[in-house]
TrEMBL record:
Highest taxon in the source lineage: Eukaryota
Family: Belongs to the HEBP family.
Protein known as: SOUL heme-binding protein
Extent of the signal sequence: none
Gene3D superfamilies assigned: Regulatory factor, effector binding domain (3.20.80.10)
Segments forming a coiled coil: none
Organism: Rhynchospora breviuscula
InterPro entries per record: Reg_factor_effector_dom_sf, SOUL_heme-bd
Length: 198
């Protein structure tokens, strides 16, 4: 019942809040180990969350874990999604649009008991990559509801504007962090947009 009502009962990444203002926070995240999969949503009939089942199978969220140790790995939150880079206009005699490779990357942050990539069970599915993420600093805005493309786009735009106005330099694409399962009531869902900064 708690998950349906938005209660987050699983481990979440550790971070230190460096600065808080009305529109966002600046956070420093500790190093972590992640399980990651990259996929093309066009090959999955437009399913932007197509990587979820691949990662869920790796940790054994829905049955037998698909990893070298057959070890069940505890679910954590959030599920992190990185969309392909925005198309970029390049000044010439006419605009040229570059679209990137169209791949979406989805990550599960593994429980903190895994201190490095070698500690985590090896995935049986070669699409799953285990890697270490170093300490990172992000500008973060939290919001509730359903993280539709339109809502996320607006949150990203406003966060970028606020960060720039306050003198913070973005150094990468935004991440979308979703903390609740799909059956959580939409107004009670916790989401975050995270932009890496210097």
């Amino acid at each position: 019942m708690g998950m349906m009502l938005g209660k987050i009962t699983v481990e979440t990444p550790k971070y230190e809040v460096l600065h808080t203002c009305p529109d966002y926070e600046i956070r420093r995240y500790n190093p972590s180990v992640v399980a990651e999969v990259a996929y093309d949503p066009k090959q999955l009939k437009g399913d932007k969350d197509g990587g979820f089942m691949i990662l869920a199978n790796y940790i054994g969220a829905l049955g037998q874990p698909q990893n070298s140790k057959s070890e069940k790995v505890a679910m954590t939150a959030p599920v992190i999604t990185k969309n392909p880079p925005e198309p970029e206009k390049i000044a010439m005699t006419a605009p040229v649009i570059t679209t990137g490779d169209g791949m979406i990357t989805m990550q599960f942050v593994l429980p903190s008991k895994y201190q490095n990539a070698e500690d985590a069970p090896k995935p049986a599915d070669e699409r799953v990559v285990i890697k270490e993420e170093g300490e990172k600093k992000y500008g973060v805005v939290r919001f509730s509801g359903v993280a539709t493309d339109k809502v996320v786009e607006e949150k990203v735009r406003k966060l970028k504007e606020s960060l720039k106005k306050d003198g913070h330099k973005a150094v990468g694409d935004f991440l979308l962090a979703r903390y609740n399962p799909p059956w959580t009531l939409p107004p009670l869902r916790t989401n975050e947009v995270m932009i890496p900064i210097e």
